[in-house]
Amino acid sequence: MPPLTTSAITSPEVHTQGRGVTYGALAYVLWGLFPAYWPLLVPAQPIEVLAHRIVWSFVTLAIVVMILRRWRPFLELSGKGWLIVTAAAVLITVNWGTYIYAVNSHHVVESALGYFITPLVSVALGMIFLKERVRLPQTVAIGVVVVAVIVLTVDYGRLPIISLVLGFSFGVYGLLKKKVPLDSITSLTAESAVIAPIALAYLLFLGSANTFTTEGTGHTLLILSTGIVTAVPLVLFGAGAQRIPLITMGMLQYLAPVLQFAWGVFVVHEPMPASRWIGFALVWLALAIFTVDALRNRRKQQLAPVG
Fold it and tell me: pTM for this one?
């Protein structure tokens, strides 16, 4: 084996992948810090915050699309494509709304659980709806998550509704995204365009109850920033996904719920009795099984003979 040279270490491919990891990590870190951001918009109620996020996200993304000159995909999208985009828009609206409500009502830990289980929800949905073949370790991981949900249901005295809504809404959203022939930016722009008129109508309906102009300049600027806060991680995510393997992005995605969980436990001090720790430990065990299996499967594919 020849020694590694400086030129080898700094080869274009390594440099590109390094930047990809940086972009992907930044995207997930920003998503992980969202629990610190949404409470800043109080006294706006969660549904008002959601409406503003949709409207200003559309404005921000439309500007990005104009700068990048990506209007053609919208014109070429079929009627069926727009139906799928509309369904995706409803699901991402449910996901965003639930998350904003969870953070602003002191359920950060429960929301983090939703994003921890999302990868396994996606596997289960792929198995059910796409007839994808599920390996034994994946089945075991899904089974462990089911047990974890039962444990947490006993702990909470109810189903962890927020976690399940977040996990399944994003899982089904991802399922639909496989059917839309648009990249991440144009796809989210289309989704925002579909739902933005409803969001704008709601804000107009609020009238004087809309906090956009009643809580001072700082609050107005924070409301306006919801568009940028939505767009920046998305752009970083897209840049990272183009440069590094999907499995690497899959590993990075755990950064967001880890940071959300840490915020909930150590910053806002949400209660974590022993039974809740057991439930989360089971989820983390399931993710460990899932991750190790994914890495082993990728290695087998790389070592498999071609042809």
Answer: 0.87
